[in-house]
Amino acid sequence: METLLKLLSRLPLPVLHRLGGVVYLLGYYGFGFRRALTLANLRRAFPDKSEGERRAIARRCYRNFCDVLMETVKSLTIREAELRRRVTIANPDVCRELARMEGDRTVIFLAAHQCNWEWMLLISRLTCAFPIEAVYKRSRNAIVDRLLVARRSRFGGALIPVDRFIVEAMRRHPGVHGLALVADQTPRREEEKCWVRFLGQDTAFFTGPQKLAALKRAVVYFVAMRRTGRGRYEVSFERIAEPPHALDGREVIEAYASVMERRIRAAPADWLWMYNKWKYPKGLYE
Fold first, then answer.
1. What mean pLDDT value characterizes the chain?
2. Where are the domains of the chain?
3. Which residues have CB under 8 Å from 141's CB, separation 6+?
4. What is the Cα–Cα distance from 101 to 79, expressed in whole angstroms?
């Protein structure tokens, strides 16, 4: 498997995209992979849209996801020059300003499963003149985990396993230091959570970004990504919260959810609707 993926990654991206088209046809029309869940999520989030509109978004979401899947394979061997051609930064001056901050400062970059979040991390590391560590969840499959670490560690920067996240994040880092989190997953029912109105419904979010921002007195940015063509994107940085933050507050989570919702509504097919974001309802006393 590892050898096959590395060989596939050597193919030109247009060829990989055509392979992704085959995966899309099999996954959406053949096996119906999470199609019912995707449509259910879209009905909850967009009750005012027609069923035809929601199905069109679902199809485009699957097509985009299959493209991203192939682009993720390409990440194993993509050259820096090609990545820079395919992913541009709308406001690189933000990175320059952050790099000039004095003292030991932490910047938290929050992102969503929108467009190609793998390339978002890589281009951010190439653009920002300071180290950026990214949080990731280990895979139970050793080969998959090794490939995941290999592609996300390209162009510098380290990865922090989610089970070591708080310990590693609280270490002192000299100068400016970035922490990147894709934080739109849903906490397990028994975990601490923050309930926020998101896409018209009560939605559970992890409290980690709020607590980390408070403990590190960090400035918080939302990293947005916009699709400009097939295999081409634009990244922008939007400041959403400034220190001080309350340890038991919710302003960071609310700002994150608000900006993410705005971005999703602008380009709904680019978010990962096949993920089960609304696994359980809000409890009576939560």
1. 94
2. 2-270
3. none
4. 30
